[in-house]
Amino acid sequence: MPSVLVTGPPASGKSFVASIVADRLGVPLIAKDAIKETLFETLGTGDVAWSQRLGRATLALMLSALEGQLRAGRPVR
């Protein structure tokens, strides 16, 4: 099964579209916004530099989750 990557400008509906695609295909969705929001809720908010650090951590966590799914032979959206 091919991978689907949803990209676009801020507030363009990427998360909405990705969730519909994942639901219809019956595959897990690894979403940047959900991960970053969880980090903010757990570690707290801060200045722009802090947000950027959490953004980098979010990307690292997303890539780790994707790698784990793909190694297990599971499709990811």
Distance between the termini: 10 Å
| H-E string | HHH
Low-confidence stretches: none
**Structural class designation:** mainly alpha
Number of E-state strands? 0
What does this structure look like?
There is one protein chain. This protein is mostly helical and 77 residues long. It has one domain (14-71). It is 62% helix and 0% strand. It contains 3 helices and no strands. The chain has helices at residues 14-25, 32-43, 48-71. Helix 2 (32-43) packs across helix 3 (48-71). 5% of the residues are buried.
Give the secondary structure arrangement, pairings included:
Blueprint: H1 14-25, H2 32-43, H3 48-71
Brief overview, please?
InterPro entries: P-loop_NTPase (IPR027417). The protein is 62% helix and 0% strand. With 77 residues, the protein is mainly alpha-helical.
Features:
single chain; about 80 residues; mainly alpha; 3 helices; about 0% strand
